[in-house]
Structures are given as C-alpha cells and as structure tokens.
C-alpha cells in the first residue's frame, strides 16, 4: 500500500470538497480530470473520509439526478464510482432495455469485459455532458470485477441496463466519455430525444438521422 504521505493531495482535495457542504460540483467535458485514467484506490482516503465521500457521491447523483457517478466527475481522480437506478420507466421501455431497479452500490477499482457477443444500442446521457444524448452500442452482458467500499471482491455478470451503467461509469475511470463510443449522427438534445426519440429502441432515430445499428 502506498505511504499515507503520498496520498495527502487527494485526501486534502476530497476534504475540501466535503467541507463546502451540499451536493458536489460536477465537472463538465473539457476538464482534464475526465480524460486521465483515474488512480487505483489503495487507501488514499482514511475510512471515515471514504465513507463521507461515498455518501456525498450518492447525494450528488440523486440531486443531479442520475443513475451513476464516478469520482472524476467531481474532480477526484480515484477509481471509485457509485450506481443506483430505481428504474422509473414504463414497462414497455423497461422490457426492451432490460432496465430493472438497481440498489445503491459502490464500485472500487472496477473493470469489465464482454460476456458473449450480444450487443445493444440505446440513447445515453452523461452528467458531465449536460443537455445531450447519443446512441451508444455496448455489450449486452459484461463480467464486472473489482471491490466494494469495504474491500469485498466483486466478480459477477451483469446484463441489460445495469450492464450499460457499469460500462459507462467504469469508462469514466479510464478517461473515456460516452461520446467516444457514440454514433455521433444520433447526437440530440434532451428535448429532441423527449419529443422525437422516446421510443424504447432507437430504430426510428437511426433511419431519420442516418446512422446504422448493429
């Protein structure tokens, strides 16, 4: 484990953010922290500070609102993310997208790899790219590995929308934004998606906007 003294800048940064109170400020695309691979978590934060930071990430995710938030999105380059999805969508959309409620959980040093060849394409948005969505094709199932906030090892297969959330947030920890993987011809404002492309799947958008689906 790295000496505590080497962790001081990150710990000080987190303590400074928490001292301000309330939801943490979310950094937007263009900030360098979103383009750098995050540092593996190795005890940089004392247990009490880690607990408070995780709680602040959760509060910030809820306030945004969103279904996932990675530490780099609040300016902290650590491989930590939180996810939670109550899945408040109509049944037709939930079935097509495989969107089921996900309880709150913390991902520490997560990684993923495709599980099978099936891929799925849906609109995604990002709290660090506010106001926009685009279609992203991703593996429909992935194997998630990592730890939780207590250090317990994670090794499980996730599918459907939960797999998409895991991939999106883990990508953040690798310096990747969803737009790097998106069909850019699908790029639409949130208002346009709500007005034109609210169907469960993006076939109509693909035909009208001129992009291909797998």
TrEMBL record:
The organism of origin for this protein: Streptomyces seoulensis
Keyword presence, Protein biosynthesis: yes
Swiss-Prot/TrEMBL GO biological process terms: translation
Pfam families reported in the protein's UniProt record: Pep_deformylase
Gene responsible for this protein: def
EC number: 3.5.1.88
Keyword Protein biosynthesis annotated: yes
Cofactor note: Binds 1 Fe(2+) ion.
Annotated HAMAP family: Pep_deformylase
General function of this protein: Removes the formyl group from the N-terminal Met of newly synthesized proteins. Requires at least a dipeptide for an efficient rate of reaction. N-terminal L-methionine is a prerequisite for activity but the enzyme has broad specificity at other positions.
Cofactor(s) the record lists: Fe(2+)
Protein name, UniProt field: Peptide deformylase
Taxonomic lineage of the native organism: Bacteria, Bacillati, Actinomycetota, Actinomycetes, Kitasatosporales
Listed InterPro entries: Peptide_deformylase (IPR023635), Peptide_deformylase_sf (IPR036821)
